[in-house]
Amino acid sequence: MWDDVVVGKKRKIFEIRRGRPRPPRRRRTPEAARQELLDAAEQVFGEFNPDQVGLVDIAREAGVSHALITHYFGTYAGLVEATLERRIRRLREQILTKLREAGALSRPSDLIGLLFRALEDPVHVRLVKWMLASDRPSAANAFALQDQGLQHVAFTVANAIDPDADRRTIEKIELALLTAVAAAYGYAITKYALAGSIGRGMSPQLDIDVQQTLAGMLRAYLRAELGPVIPAA
Questions:
Q1: Is the CB of residue 60 less than 8 Å from the CB of residue 19?
Q2: How does pLDDT run across 40-51, given as a tens digit for each residue?
Q3: Residue numbers of the domain that contains 115
Q4: What is the distance, to the nearest Å, from the Cα of residue 208 to the centroid of all Cα atoms in its chain?
Q5: Which DSSP helix (H) or strand (E) runs through 208?
Q6: Among residues 16, 43, 74, which one ends one of the domains?
Q7: Does a structural domain hold residue 33?
Q8: CA–CA separation, 54 and 46 (whole Å)
Q9: What predicted TM-score, i.e. pTM, was given to this entire model?
Q10: N or C: the chain end with fewer CB closer than 10 Å?
Q11: For the chain, which residues score pLDDT lower than 70?
Q12: Based on the structure, what is the number of domains in the chain?
């Protein structure tokens, strides 16, 4: 009930914002216009779950007609998916940049930390929950197959270990990364229930403990499978 009250108050504020005159239209390149629409979507999703707003709300935030959104994204669902896709690509680039640092493989906690910080962002979590709860798993699967973000990260890790790494090594790294990401997402989405299942309340310290445990498990698995090529802590 309290959540409904909060959403109602936020909705009233949002309606006031919607009633303001639109800013004058500006000439944009197609890519700039697309990015501005995604920026507006992130701004709105910072306050509301995707199922609490729609195309008109995003269009008002961006100062455009909702027809322009459908031109670039097809549907509202397409816009939500594109917003999440952009965030996932940014996260992947951050991880790849971190991997290029000297000694990065000996500090898996740094890489896990990047993932957990992204999942602390309520916008990211809302979009992931929406994707999982929607009837569009095929869209999420299609994006994953097209982008293959974890595979890019696995190749980078394998190349850092051995520029001539064989397919078996790459597959072991892919499996380790897949497991770590699945654990991180599962924890982010259900952390309160999981904490309660061990008789604990949520706290920043528990987040840290889970991150460190997952990083240690990731390092231990890779060292067991690939040997001492994985630097010790």
A1: no
A2: 999 999 999 999
A3: 87-229
A4: 19
A5: helix 204-226
A6: 74
A7: yes
A8: 14
A9: 0.78
A10: N
A11: 1-27, 135-147, 228-233
A12: 2
